[in-house]
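To whoever is on call:

I kicked off a structure prediction for a single chain this morning and the downstream step that reads the tokens threw a length-mismatch warning. I double-checked the sequence; it's 199 residues and nothing unusual in it as far as I can see. Pasting both halves so you can look.
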Amino acid sequence: MDLYPESILNLIKSLSTLPGIGRRTAERLALHILHAPLHEAQTLANDILELKQKVTLCRTCFSLSDQPECRICSNPRRDASIICVVEKPTDIVAIEKSGAFSGLYHVLGGALSPMDGIGPDELRIRELFSRACSKTTTEVIIATGTNVEGEATAAYISDQLRKKGVNVTRIASGVPMGGDFQYVDQVTMQRAMEGRRGF
């Protein structure tokens, strides 16, 4: 039997629908919000509403943006001749944190997965081909995941773009920094050996 008032139960139920939030965590969050100053709760509510109302997809790269073009696509300092293809907007965040890339991005919106009914038409591959075949593009870097779906997506895009004469590369993968060889799987080790470079 729940002893909380209905409004608290409703918030617990809503919070527990979020990824990684179970009932106990949702309960703690709901009680925290209840005891927080009213302006903090109002700010949180307003931020959620603003997120839902303003955030959309960039018209160029399909990343998240609150403007027609995202900050990266609208930045004249970015190298517009290189496009890095990723599966989702969070992949951009990871790459940007590295500081190793200064080009533009293209978010596919997922990866090919025939078992789940996701083919090329369900992703933003057509839009990628249009961008990649422009005269200003010198390289397309494929940075999809290294799982089966990511590899299949990379192979499909690479094959199609090479037929169109586009220079295509794939991000390297291999042994992580500080990784112990005894814990590295065979595929990762194989890729690390194949992707070796001068030192």
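Update from on-call: the warning came from a stale cache, not from the record. Cleared it. Sanity check on the structure: The mean pLDDT is 92.
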